[in-house]
Amino acid sequence: MEVARTRSVSLRGLEGALVEVEAHIAPGLPSFALTGLPDKACGQAPDRVRPALASSGYPLPTRRITVNLSPAALEKHGSGFDLPIAVAVLVASGVIAQRVVGDIVHLGELGLDGALRRIHGILPAVLHAQAQGVRTVIVPPENLAEAQLVEGVDVHAPPNLRTLIQWYAGVAAGHDLPQSEAAAGAGRAERLVGDLADVVGQTEARMALELAATGGHHLALGGPPGVGKTMLAERLVTILPPLTREQALQTHAVASLIGAIGAVHGLDLTPPYVAPHHTASMAALVGGGSRQVLPGAVSRAHHGVLFLDEAAEFDQRTLNTLRQPLESGEVVIARARAVHRYPARFLLVLASNPCPCGNAYHKGRECTCSPTVIRHYRNKLNGPLLDRIDLQVSVHPVTLSALEGTVGESSAVVAARVAQGRGAAEERWAALGYRLNAEVPGSVIRRPPYRLAARTTAGLARLLDRGDLTMRGFDRALRVAWTVADLAGHTVPDPDDVSAALALRHTGRLAA
Fold it and tell me: For a Cys staple, 189 with which of 48, 173, 266, 440, CB 3.0–4.6 Å?
């Protein structure tokens, strides 16, 4: 007989490829061969498909069955090919008509009883199918809400293989596929993230937080335990603008790859907040893996905040891996057979104690750390990594007068100023293709028409000449000065704006 065909999607990171699933049944000894570079999970599909078809009332014929996943040179990962393999075999057996399933993408794992089970990566797979012009997708019921986040695609979720066969019999008779009930709304899914009004005092740190949100600047907070560093970092997402639909889909797609998307009740437009533990491995932080290359914390924080609490406790090699994504906004992981790319444009917030015990430089508390231990501890955050941090502020203990003082501004009030400042920056840089001050290359802000007057940058120039400021630090200070000016309503930064930007860059004094 002719070769039966249906379609599926193979993922390499967030990038997808349409896969043609071909099935052929021929006389010969009973066998089930699967070709096309399947990994171990995918290669076990015949052992799941055979009992699933038998449980559904359609046992495999006792003949030679060959299934090919084309293009054969592309590696196939995971159990999501179970369903398309079963459908292709049913078409080859004459149970399902070829014309019904030729243009439909099938995604899903099969249980031995024929039930469709959830898989990871449904959202990026459906997004790729949509981009390739596919209009109908079959997914497991548990993935329905996630798949329905993609517009322009009809998503159907039969509970089991038997139901899907019945649906296709109806389509062959001239009926439409039954519509699956909408499982996810298109609106915003709220996430409880606190309010900036919860922070007591900390005027300088709150200012740095507002500048970070407005200009997209990375932030480091140093100070003893209990002064509010973690609370400040957690509140940063409350003053960031809501994600656009495209940005939200990108962040959801990354979470979908690792199965961290959870229950979907709508498109969550709140920027992500990711805070890995200081014992996290290099692969957990930036991505990787031995069998399958998965995104790390930096990619899960895409368009949001990556918070490294107790930053000096992280392995120094692990911290150094942040340098490349901080500059490029993406993670590139090279393997022998493929290169995987994951987005990683995030706001980095570091928090650090002054020493391992946390009491160095703290009045009234005795530090038990030796000078050598303190120096080694603080040196972990020196050098190239810290040079990429635009805002470096010390957070001090709150006094009783601050505790009994006026309540600080709410997140809504600060977020309004952040939106206004971002609007000014976007209007200025739109013609050049930039949205935030932190994205603008130094070559742009150091040349006309954006080059500042010599008297305005005199302080920065002196530090650069003395070697107290690197060229990268010079450019980053200028970017912060533009953000200070945007919040102040200035068209161009003045000397005070530049001084304020420099004052918030306390290199070497983070934990003091």
Answer: 266
